[in-house]
Amino acid sequence: MKFLITNDDGIDAAGLNALLEAAQNFGEATIVAPAAPQSGVSHAVTWHEGVRIEPRGEKRQSGSDRFAIHGTPADCIRLGLLHLVPDANWVLSGINHGANLGADVYYSGTVAAVREAILHGWPGIAFSHYRKGADFDWPRATRWITPLLRELLDRPIEADVDSDNLAEDEVGGGGTGGEQCRFSQRDRIRLHRPRIKRELPDRSPAARIIRSSWRPSSASARRN
């Protein structure tokens, strides 16, 4: 199992590392996240400018395991799935520093990243963490996410399934009870697949700038 992990709080956010810790129980993870916080940018994408890709972290035979993208969460998904990690099986986004409830899902870059992945045919899950009147508890969040991932990854991939709120009996423990879990269907559209035109060297030898043209074509098949 191979994961592409992103967020909207930036590559140095604590929630991103908490999600990485949970995902590594089930496979290999590559981080493709914004270089700076992008909270609230929704589904914005970079159209007419170059997007800088900055490798971070350790180098592996297959390349870097962590990339900082100087763009939006949706940019991270486009460049991640269609250029950096095309063999990813799942996209995971978060853990967001704060709730994404109700209309928040339309403003959230965390949720938009998964929405972008789904439009290209990849399955994904967005995670958010909120505790009223309390500090973020990232170890606890990781404990919650781990059994949830185990359950969802074992299921056959279904089109357009959305979940919100997690119950203790649904995820195998980790909470104090009182929460509920619900699954619902969402409509789906197809997005044009980007084509990488050229790569331009940046001043830093470790960085690249990608300039893309966007042309109509069928979305890629869902990765199983």
Task: Write a concise synopsis of the structure shown.
This protein has 224 residues and is α/β, with parallel strands linked by helices.
Uncertain residue segments: 171-175, 179-184, 186-192, 213-224
Biggest sheet strand order reads: 6-5-1-2-4-3-10-9
The percentage of residues in β strands lies in 25-35%
CATH topology name, in short, is: Stationary-phase Survival Protein Sure Homolog, Chain: A
Named at the architecture level, the CATH assignment is 3-Layer(aba) Sandwich
Please give the domain count: 1
Name the helix and strand elements from N-terminus to C-terminus, one letter apiece.
Answer: EHEEEHEHHEHEHEEE
| Percentage of residues in helical conformation | 25-40%
* Helix run count: 6
β-strand number: 10
Distance between the termini: 9 Å
Secondary structural class: alpha/beta
- What gross morphology would you assign? globular
Overview of this structure, please?
Helix content is 26%, strand content 29%. It has 224 residues and is α/β, with parallel strands linked by helices. It has one domain: Survival protein SurE-like phosphatase/nucleotidase (Stationary-phase Survival Protein Sure Homolog, Chain: A, 3-Layer(aba) Sandwich). The strands form two sheets. It has an eight-stranded mixed beta sheet, with helices on both faces. The protein has a two-stranded antiparallel ribbon with strand order 7-8. Strand 9 and strand 10 form a beta hairpin. The C terminus is likely disordered.
Architecture blueprint of SSEs:
Elements: E1 2-6, H1 14-23, E2 28-34, E3 51-60, E4 63-69, H2 73-84, E5 90-97, H3 104-107, H4 109-120, E6 124-129, H5 138-154, E7 161-164, H6 168-171, E8 182-185, E9 194-201, E10 208-214
Parallel strand pairs: 1-2, 1-5, 2-4, 5-6
Antiparallel strand pairs: 3-4, 3-10, 7-8, 9-10
Helix pairs in contact: 1-5, 2-4
